Amino acid sequence: MTPEQAAAHARQWEALAAARTGEERARAITEAQGWWREHARLSAAAGRVPAGYAAPAPQRVPSQQPLGVTPYAGPPSGPVPYGAPAYGGATPYPAGPPQRRRTSGCLVALIVTLVVGVATMLVIGLVVTSLNRVVEAGPTTAPTVYPSPTQVAPSPTAPTDPPTTAEPTPEPTTAPPMTDEEMFLGGYWELPLPDPVPLSSPLPRFSDTYADATEWFAGHGIPEITAVATDDPTLNCGFGYANSDTFVHAGCYQTNHRDIVFVWWNEDSTFAQREFLVAHEYSHWYQWHEHFDVMNAARLQGFFTDSQAWRDAMESDATCRVLSWGGYDATVAAESSTPCTTDGWYEGWLIDAAVALGVQL
To answer: Cα separation of 93 and 70, whole Å?
Structure first.
């Protein structure tokens, strides 16, 4: 890793800290500090002094690097000494007066002094080498678990200091938060279906050609959609309309089951009604996949629950889209509980209708 890469990581954590509060902010600040310390260490190892630090005065040091890392409390505001403390050289022994005779005693003293000095340096070197092998763990974070819309994300694990050696440093594993659209498309909003799915009685065959609506979708080039038969109103919201007990068909699309449409029909329904039903629910699937921003904005701002005008516009958009595809019975659409009430409909009409109703995009 280079000092520039360490600095880039530190700035990423500082940016994340600026956008967070509480424990997440404290955690991000700690991460940033750890990376700034690593940046300083790498810069020193490369012979560079990080910006804002003063280079230490020339000094004689032992061959081993000193232990310890100067604690880092954020980007420095002025010159801060950086580097290892100076080690003074050993004071030389004074030489004895010149002698012309009896030099053997001086020679022995010199040899003893050299032996003691070398042994002392070897001991110091072994101690420093042993201590340098104690390496603190590099910065690691627990993987983020992305919540469903009703869950709260757990606080990530606090980071540790970066290593003090030149060994490879693990990259931070915490990714930036996902957008709502990424979570929706990635299946993070999904809820499990009950097993078995409630159904009062089996549905009649969809048509002479298709046994059920899932086969109909596959036959029309839409194999990713599964049609689930149910008359449970918690899944099939079509039963939430007034006089639903008189319906001969009902359907629903929910974002908690991204690639599923819930359908129901009885013996009194016609093939034209069943075909319109599944196409209409697929049109709701299309709204969320092609116009996610406006649909999600309306959801977050309470329009789905508090605005009948929005709900009517959304249903009208879905039916008008079905009729624009061609091949569907306009009379069946007009007599349904969700008719197309928009003259001159066009793809994108829903966005303009949402803005006119006050949805903030």
So the answer is: 35
